[in-house]
Every structure is written in structure tokens, then in C-alpha cells.
Amino acid sequence: MKSAVMAACAALMVPMIAGVAQAQQAPNPIPAVPAEGVSQLEALIGNALHAKPAKARKLLVFSKCEGFVHGDGIAYGNKALELAAKTGAFQADFSTDYAALTDKANLFKYDAVVLNNTTRLNAKDNPAMVPNLIEFVKSGRGLCVIHSGADNFYDSPDAAEMVGGQFDGHPWGGGGTWAFKLDDPKSPLNQAFEGKSFKTGEEVYQQKSPPYDRAKLHVLVSLDLSDPATAETKDQKRADKDFAVSWIRPFGEGRVFYTSFAHDKRAFLDKARLWHILDGLQYTLGDLKADDKPAAK
């Protein structure tokens, strides 16, 4: 009798436990940006971006997450781009629906795609996504990849090659303050840094090779290992100590910008990093001209 009661209790607990597990695994909701944050972003962005658009531009901002959800990084990034669109530099649509990328006719309405902190995008169940994106960029359009946009395409090496890097851990955690140097101080995409190296709080990815290869990229910002705290972090995997943070590259007839900045809202509330991202975006749209020759050329 006792064993029968215990079995019945166990049977009742299974769905309860499963429900708890499902609740724990559910992705964190994207927070709303409070009014104070909106006001701060409006003040930082102002009324115009650095480059005048050559024609009316249309932007797709995609922020689907199958892995870790960078909640306020997505929220503040999307809000910053929504406000930047009010300058007239582009029109922006926002989506987490794979159909935005798998429907080729829909995708090709845009001049550039932003992967705002996407993680572990499911290419297996959405087989048109990767070939569409590659053709999209090669045809002369742009791809702007923010922070964990590099945490994707593990089964799609051609897409990872297009991005130029892939997440391989983050020895430089978001709770630390790290040193950064400008690899190309004269690049218009680095103008917000005013030619100066700097320190800031950020989570920084190290990149896996392949696909990362400095010889194929025009690196803009790297970690500055002359700073002891930055140089001495644990779990560094790259023997060459090449820890690029932001880069651009031509890809076919199109353009790619990647930055490891923007793990969270701090990057978007910091004028220099915010404008670095906005300038990177305008490069991918084709409106901000920059030397993007790979290091090997």
C-alpha cells in the first residue's frame, strides 16, 4: 500500500517538475527601455547620423535568440536603432520571426540586416536562412553583427566566414574593465573614439579560427594587452594573442561590420560605442565610405 501511494505521488510530481524545468529554461523576456533610458538615447543620437543616405534605405533588425538572451542589450540596441531611424537615415523594421530571413522576397526588400545579439540561430530547421543571407550580402547589401551575433552558424561555416568570427568564450567578462586600442585610428567608423585608446566595462568575445583570420578583415578595434588586467585574464585560447573587437570587410559586392561591444545597455548609453555602432551600420548600408581593405592586401 505504501509503495502504491509513493508511486502515485511520484506520478503527480512529474508534470510539476517538468513545469518548473520549462519555466527555468524559458528565455528571459526582453525588458522595456524606461523613459529615462529613451531620453538618454535621444540625447546621444540627436537629429542626424554622420552620413547622408545616398537613397532611401530600409533596414531589418533581427534579434531572435535560441541561446543566451542579452535582454537589455537587445532592448537598448533596438530602441537606439528605432530612434536613429527618426533622423531619416533609414527606415527600420524589427523581427524575431525566421520568415523575415527565409522569405527571400521579403529579405531582399532591405539594404542591410542587423543581427542584434542573436544567439544559436536554427539553420537546420530554417534551411533557406543561410543561403539567403549570403546571397543578400554578396549581391551588394550589408550585414551589421552586434556582440552575440557571432554566437551563431556553428553548422554553417560559410555564414561564419561571412561574419568573420565566431564565439569561443569570453575571458573578459562583463563585470570587468578592459583596455582597448584603435587598429585604424583614422577610420570614420572610429571617429567617435577621437583617436584615443580607452578603458570601459564590457564583455568581450575571443574569436575562433577558422573563421577568424585577421588577414581577411579590416580590424578597427582590438583588446590592448599592454594593460595588465586585460592581458592576464584566464581562459585565453589564442596563442597569437590576436583579440579583435570590431572589424569590417567587403564580402562579394556587399559589406559586413562586426563588433563585440554591446553585451548590455552600457554600450548604447556610452556615446563613443553607440556612435561606433551607428557608423558601422551606415558603412554596411553603403552610405559611410571607409577603407575596408583586408590586412593582407
Count up the helices. 10
Estimate nothing, just give the exact number of structural domains.
1
- The spatial strand order of the largest sheet comes to 2-1-3-4-9-8-7-5-6
CATH superfamily: Class I glutamine amidotransferase (GATase) domain
What sequence of helices (H) and strands (E) makes up the elements? HHEHEHHEHEHEEEHEEHH
Describe the main β-sheet briefly.
9 strands, mixed
**N-to-C terminal Cα separation, in Å?**
80 Å
CATH architecture descriptor name: 3-Layer(aba) Sandwich
Q: Helicity, in percent?
A: 25-40%
Summarize it:
With 297 residues, this protein is α/β, with parallel strands linked by helices. Helices cover 33% and strands 17% of the residues. The protein is built from 10 helices and 9 strands.
Question: What topology does this entry show?
Answer:
Elements: H1 2-25, H2 35-45, E1 58-62, H3 71-85, E2 91-95, H4 99-102, H5 104-107, E3 112-116, H6 129-138, E4 142-146, H7 157-163, E5 177-182, E6 198-201, E7 218-223, H8 228-231, E8 244-251, E9 254-259, H9 265-268, H10 271-285
Helix pairs in contact: 2-3
